[in-house]
Specification:
Blueprint: H1 2-12, H2 23-27, H3 35-38, H4 62-68, H5 74-77
Length: 87
């Protein structure tokens, strides 16, 4: 959802890959009142999502990955990890 919102923001404001993007920019493209909209850029564990520029996939915090890694395989998470996690 965050990545899609980033893309929509970039299209509407004619942003290029590498241009800065903030939570307030992408929040405009989320459904108002949802958990994600109200999250202040934090996941369900209270850890922040990491993203700073258009064209870069948002990342999951290592702490959140650790909490979820036993129920979802690493290959699912790998595009969203800051660095590759070795188990």
């Amino acid at each position: 959802m965050i990545h899609a919102a980033m893309d929509q923001y970039a299209i509407e404001f004619k942003k290029q890959p590498g241009d800065p993007v903030s939570w307030n920019d992408v929040r405009l493209y989320m459904k108002e009142g949802t958990k994600l909209y109200n999250s202040q850029n934090n996941d369900l564990f209270g850890n922040p999502y990491s993203f700073k520029e258009v064209g870069v996939t948002p990342k999951l915090s290592p702490a959140s990955y650790s909490a979820l890694s036993d129920v979802v395989p690493q290959d699912f998470w790998s595009p969203y990890l800051e660095t590759e996690v070795v188990k």
